[in-house]
What does this fold into?
Amino acid sequence: MTDIRRPDHERRHEPPSGPTTTPASEDQAAGNPPGRRGTGRAWTRLALMTLGPVMGALLLSGLLLLALGVDPIAYYGFVLERGLINAYGLQATFTRMGTLLLIAAGLIVAFRAGLWNLGGDGQFLLSAVAVAALAPLLTPHLPIALVLLAGLLAGAAVGAAWSMLPALLKAYQGINEVITTLMTSFLGISLANVLVKLAFHDPATTVPQTRTLAVADRLPRLFGTTVSSGLLLGLGAIIVVHLVMTRTAFGLKLRVVGANPRAAIHAGLPVPMLTVAAFAISAALTGLAGAVEILGVQGNVRADWNPAYSLTVIPLVFLARFNGFAAIGFVFLFSVLSIGGESAARRTGVPNFFTLVVVAILLVMLGIAEYLDKRHRTARR
Amino acid sequence: MSTLFTEPFFTALVLGALTAGLPLLLAGLGEQISEKAGVLNIGIEGMMLAGAYGGFLVAYHTGSIWLGYLGGALGGMAVATPMAVLCIRLGLSQIVIGMALTLGAEGTTALLHHFQFAQSYPRLPAVATLAIPGLSAIPVIGPALFDRPPIVYLAILAVFLTAYVFRSTHLGLALQAAGDKPEALDAAGVDVVRLRSLAVLATGCLAGVGGAFMAEVGAGIFVPFMTNGAGFIGIVLAMQARGRPFGVLWGALLFGACLSAATALQVAGVSIPTDVVQMLPFVAVLAVLVLLGRKASLPPALGVHYVRGGR
Amino acid sequence: MNQPRAASPPPPASPLSEPRPVISLDSVTRRFPGALALDRVTFDLWPGEVHVLLGENGAGKSTLVALLSGLHQPDAGSIRVDGRAVRIDTPARALDLGIGTVFQHSMLVPSLSVVDNMALGGAWWARPDRAGLARRMALVGAEIGITIDPAAKVGALSLGERQQVEIVRALLRGSRVILLDEATAMLTPQGAGKLGELVGRLAKRGIAVVFITHKLDEALAIGHRITVLRLGRKVGEIAPDRLASLGPAAATTEIVRLMFGSDDLTAPTAAPRRDRMAPPPLLVIEGLAVDDPVVPLAGIDLAVAPGEIVGIAGMDGNGQKQFAEAVAGQRRLAAGRITLGGTSLERLDVGGRRRQGLRYVTDDRLGEGTIGSFPLSLNLLLKDVGEPPFWQGGLERPEAIAAHARRLVEAYDVRTPGISAPIDTLSGGNVQKALLARELSGAARAVIFAKPTNGLDLQSARAARQHVRETANQGRAVILLSTDLDELLELSDRIAVMSRGRIVGMVANDEAARSRLGALMSGVAA
It folds into this structure.
């Protein structure tokens, strides 16, 4: 009865040992023989476990491209050129990172607490719509800085509010949050569309979209580039989340709930309250991502816009073993793929859906790598 | 208001409930088989989508609706196979792999559609119905219930068949045992891994046919992401039905009615934006979970990988 | 190492004596990662004979069962059935060979009826022949003196009834060999006696029975032949004629020598405690009631004086767990009062009660007591997360945490590769030491021990018992929950019996205690 209600990924996706690991994991390293050789082996393992799935995913998706009649080398070359080498592309990549890092930070909080928050896309879109509706209304009356601050807070609040139903059902009724977060996500996406079309549409245009925030009123750009300061928010958020989860009593409590809820009850932790708190923080960060995307990049929400960022960031967070610093690296790589892929869609005719496939293959590869690693370790013991 | 509830309104409502509810029924029935055997099958959304694509592709090229359903079943099983291998044999997380397969099926079908049909958006011809003599002449429910494409009758038959299998065959007992106490089943000489793998494949088959129905009968066209959460609703239906196939049937019809309420209202002259209508099933699911969540019963070994003589 | 088998004469009890054993194991070895579970074990199983496998935890008894029932395969050595070498690679193969197993933990599906459990494993598309099975069940049951309702849901049956169902099922499937793995572990003394009689009747019908136990008196009462295992090795076998000629007393001495190498380990760690006249009670529980779907508790009164050990006896699942959790604060009370040194506890949560000095050593050490993947150092502070000096203003202070861990590891002699080793890499005995360190250190005033020696090897069990005793000697109030009567009689001052969520009696620990407890536990005196 209880088994599916608690994901055991904390155990299964145990972070490997390495320099950037968490307290929960550095002890696993202690299971290995200490000393330089042990550390070296741990490093090799980390590299294999991380790069293996990435290379495997690129290889398999390349084969898929071949099957579709597209030259994979040319495609990936174009993606790299547009997402990494080209200056404008790189700036777009950094801007996208800001949004994705906030989502990743939110996911890390939930996953470390053993909660499957799969409702990020609904939380993201509803926050985006709320911010897009609110900000243009405030600009005539408030200084820009206050408008932006209000927007960010509103985004976080809407995101958190949208997670409360699954959070309360999980905390007090024990209802599997996988289902409820997915349901609220679909609901949120539809509701966002309804709001854009019926409540907040811009009367000045026939296109169903919200009022547009003037470029001058958006989040400031960094150092004369086009990179939005959302990047700083994202980096700050994920580092703070990492430190809170690994270095504070609150983070430890969440990890205890995630790793063994029965032990949490035994130790007297207020499990329902911590569950709700973890959901609220997770969804607030996702909502913040929605606000940053609107205030920094889009300026408005068009009807039927759904970038589905949250679902695609999930594999990255798994790949990073819930480690904030590692997540920065993977989010960067994915942002390159994502920005480059969008350009490639226009140029090579491979639609953006392709990144979905890459991400799916990556998840499967990751699972297989963990399986092989576990088998290898049992065999050696 | 009395003018609202006319005969065409009810006919449209019942007909819509059946058309929209049938994919949910097949998905829920399939998920129920997996859950009974102890597998939480989150990949079912991907299986439906692959079924929708496979069904459309085959029906479009062969012109045969029945080969289309076969294509749908194969599409669903193509997604179910990696699930069986990775989760049942290797014991990977059913949630992670389920999500991956759903994402992968979404991306792959959208890509394939883009390269094959994005220029032309071909449609399938309307599907012939099979009127059951006598019954189809009954007013209101006659045309809605007894003048439907034959697959509808087969799906209802599948409910009876599943109920029979669950209750009255060794297979049913074995499925129950696989979800309740797999080690007992193993000790009785039944291969748990094989049984669960077959259960997952059966889920893929049913979900795939459900998806094919959406594309061939419901829409007459394949559109990327067209299942739009129907598989996930199927999961909820299976959970609420507590192991009884008829529970899935009633639930599917209820959700189908929700989905088709807008069409029926339009028939009655009331117009509701489609986005609002799209929200209805999810609102209904959440309402059901809030009201009845505690009663959802799940097998004890659900989602737990079985290792013989696990130490 | 193996005693020479003196021409193994056919057992006298068997009317169907055959010249050769039905199963023989020839120097069978089985390894697990980091352990040699069975080391070149050889033994024969004769029809119509109850062959007792006797040994401590970890002696390899369960591994042997797993090999014979097809759950594991030997790494070396051979298994012969009727003289032919066989490979028992699946449970189905074991059944085909006529080997039926009744596992320690029931192998029945709780949500299915008795008859459906019997039908499990039939041809997939066939209808289970429920009526026919029920008839055959009744026939077999009548032969061995058992009646079971075939339509009853297994989940509603008692443990003893489930074992009977499993034995009948094994016979229905034509088993000539029945393995009973620790079958009496969960039964009342009366239930165990009945099972012993049933096993005797099975042997009379020519069935070969393997009876696995760690209880010496049972082995002597039931067995025709006794094989003793120790640390994966067969250390001796007593053939039927020798067993008969030795007599109970001499056989006991012989077996103790074989099981433990020396006979002093079974001696109590100290003389039984005497019921002392105690000062006013420290921990007082009055009218405690708990709502629970399985075993609700009602009207529990208990007062424990400082320095006193109050044992609570009872079969597993009579509310002991619910009681311990309710007192510790993990469960809501429906009614009742708990005071510790005059301070009322029932409104406090787990942390609040802990700060008052109430401690709970759980028996579910890996399930709820610890987090397997977390380091030992954090597991030692699991109930103090956020407390100074280990956390200041919510921030972790690694040096303080490490120093605390090193101190406890030293003081409680926890054998570990390091304080940051994940606790699930430690042996069961060392996990228990870590738990004891966590619960007994600091300002403990009253301690609840739940089955403190459950699943531990002999040395660790001894150490744990010593900790219980010392805790009381330091003037703390102790509640000891245990299903092991010997342990309770050795440690407690008074012993209460818990049955179906109530305390049905309390006896002082004197010479008559054992028989009175037995009567209370079986409901005679309730």
Residues 7-126+136-295 of chain B form a domain with the ABC transporter involved in vitamin B12 uptake, BtuC fold (CATH 1.10.3470). DSSP finds twelve helices and two strands in chain B.
